[in-house]
């Protein structure tokens, strides 16, 4: 595979850095969400790893980060080369349509022909060069007017991801793996996921979107006109002295909706959505079972340990231990266990029940213990 040379013409990367990652509690908290943690042992946070992946495609001046006002200092500390004009601050979370849409609207005012690509701040991708080649294909498709997503070639019948059904192939120069999208499928049961894998016609939905900013905004205008109107109003004021006043007035009134529902699904129904297959390892690290698999290299029966200075004694045990304390953690004869030890909270579960951690977070909210969130 030949290395890409230089940044992509007219391309800007958007990194939405939001969400708490409630299924990774008590490691991930409101003040220290998932994207601000090193979950791979690389020595970098997931946010920094995302920046490093897209930097050769867009350059430091071509990367916009959307995050909460409370995380501004942490984000800027992680990304010292992020331009002040390229950090978009949310006063409150409004889901992915508003976050990505606002960044696209701002960039469209600055650069009318801009192509934008959105890449979550908290995903893990291990083959950065193959990832960049796939993005370059998606940009080529976007130049032809399609809203484009990247679908990951599935390696197992996962029930934790949504799926994309491929349609007809597209004959676009520079994009040999591009297809129309036939439809999106929500997380399936195991039998359905197995059938999808065997068919070879389905890809995992990784939530990456690449499009001309004008086309993305046109789709929002059709499906979410109130959201579209509000985003354009904020974008018009963004590079002026009225930014804070207008944002504070308009942002709280914007509807919350995921970009899958506001843009991707209606674009697919209209024949305007394309997918490029990504043949690189990808994981959204959605729960501690995913983290255990990631850290162990998907080797069953191993015990993965994360935490600087973690003190773990294990005998005939497997699973994952995350330690943020100085306590000695001893495990004897337990399999697929999850132990997360922090200074003020301890979680013990199994990989099988890792998805249920979110219910603990919901219970803590009901109890009014915001200090633990």
Note down, in words, how this protein is organized.
The chain is α/β, with parallel strands linked by helices and 373 residues long. It folds into 2 domains: 11-283, Spore Coat Polysaccharide Biosynthesis Protein SpsA, Chain A (Alpha-Beta Complex); 288-372, no CATH class. The protein has helices at residues 46-58, 72-78, 95-110, 128-143, 190-199, 213-223, 225-238, 243-250, 259-269, 288-296, 357-366, and strands at residues 11-17, 63-68, 87-90, 115-118, 124-125, 147-152, 163-169, 178-185, 202-212, 273-278, 282-283, 303-306, 311-315, 319-323, 328-332, 337-341, 346-350. Strands 6-9-7-8-10 form a 5-stranded mixed barrel, surrounded by 4 helices. A hairpin with an 8-residue loop joins strand 7 (163-169) and strand 8. Helix 3 (95-110) packs across helix 6 and helix 6 packs across helix 7. The protein starts with 10 loop residues before the first strand and ends in a 7-residue tail after the last helix. The model has no long low-confidence stretch (mean pLDDT 93).
Q: Helix- and strand-based class?
A: alpha/beta
| Model regions low in confidence, pLDDT < 50 over at least 5 residues | none
Q: How many angstroms separate the termini?
A: 45 Å
Query: Could you say what the CATH topology of the largest domain is called?
Result: Spore Coat Polysaccharide Biosynthesis Protein SpsA, Chain A
Order of helices and strands: EHEHEHEEHEEEHEHHHHEEHEEEEEEH
Helix content: 25-40%
Describe the strand arrangement of the main beta sheet, using strand numbers: 6-9-7-8-10
Total count of strands? 17
Our Rg estimate from Cα atoms comes to 21 Å
CATH hierarchy, class of the largest domain? Alpha Beta
CATH architecture of the largest domain: Alpha-Beta Complex
The major sheet is characterized as:
5 strands, mixed, barrel
State mean pLDDT (0 to 100 scale). 93
Oligomer: single chain
Work out the count of structural domains. 2
Q: Could you state the CATH homologous superfamily of the largest domain? A: Spore Coat Polysaccharide Biosynthesis Protein SpsA, Chain A
